[in-house]
Every structure is written in C-alpha cells, then in structure tokens.
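It is worth pausing here to work through a concrete case rather than discussing structure prediction in the abstract. The textbook approach is simple: state the sequence, then state the predicted structure, then interpret. We follow exactly that order.
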Amino acid sequence: MMKIQILLLIILLFFACGNRQKIVEELSKLQSKSIILPKQSRLAIHGKDTVLMDFMKADRLKLLIYADSSGCSPCAINKMFLWDNLIEYSKEYKGDLRFYFIFSPRKRDEKEVQIALINNAFDYPVLIDTLGEFEKLNSHLPKDKALHTFLLDENNNVILAGNPLYNKKIRKMFYKIVEEKLGKPQ
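Step two, the predicted structure:
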C-alpha cells in the first residue's frame, strides 16, 4: 500500500512539474508579442450593435477577457455579472482602466450569444468576433483557457495573465499592479 502511495505521489509531482513548465512556456510566448485588438468585430451592449468612438483608444491599462469558439460563449456570458465589482472599481480610474470582453463564438452559436447578452442585460461593451480575427491576429495566445484573461499596458503588452475572479493570487497582483501604475483610487 505504501509503495502505491509513493508511486502516486511521484506521478502527481511529475505531472505538476510538467504542467508548470507548460504554463511557463505559454506565458513566455504570450509575453513575446503585444496583443492586437480586432477592428472588424461587432461591438454590442445588451446584444445590440453599438458604436463607441473612444472605446478602443489607447488606455493606460486594459483587462482583456477572451472566450474562444471552443468553449460555450453563452455560458460565459451568463457569468458576466461576476465582473460587476471589478468594473465598478475600474470606474474610479476615469477611463485609465478598461475591460475588453471578446467573444469568438462559432457561427452556429452567434444567435445564442446575442440572446444571452440581451437576457443578461450586461451594461458594458462586448466585442463579438465572429470572424475569429482576434485569434488570427494573436497567434501567440495560450491554449490554456486559464490564461485567456490578461492585463495589458498602454502598448498592449501582457503584464499579468490569469483570471482575478477565480484566483486570489492573481486578484491581489491585479490590484497591486493597477495601484502601482495608476495610483490608489480616489
């Protein structure tokens, strides 16, 4: 019995180290180039097409949340209310910290995404990238979905990767970086 436990521990350590190395490689690749935001995507609020002239301006910091076509875009939209507190926090920075939600739904899911946006009454612009332009422009994106949320500087370089909603360490680092770059909120 003891030999089996030791063997399981060795296997777990092996996979943990292998997984850690893969994450380090994906982060290095992600930080190797700046992120390019798509220009051909639809911008929607409450599922309705919107034009916001200054939305894509060069902000000092951006938190980009990306959901690719391999996941359930309507499911992700149904959880967008979880971002409300961080969005409220960002308003204290008067536009120097913005959120970019980019959904790249499969063509067959496009209508469901629009319905989910309407039903959830999410009151923040969402980029709907049906052409998959974001992924094409950013071939260095990691495959690991846990790394599909990242904080960008004014040049769209990644300075933090990971979701602050689901990881306390990432959340703590997010607040620290924001306050270092933009100061404490008033």
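Step three, interpretation. The longest strand covers residues 61-67. The longest helix spans residues 2-30.
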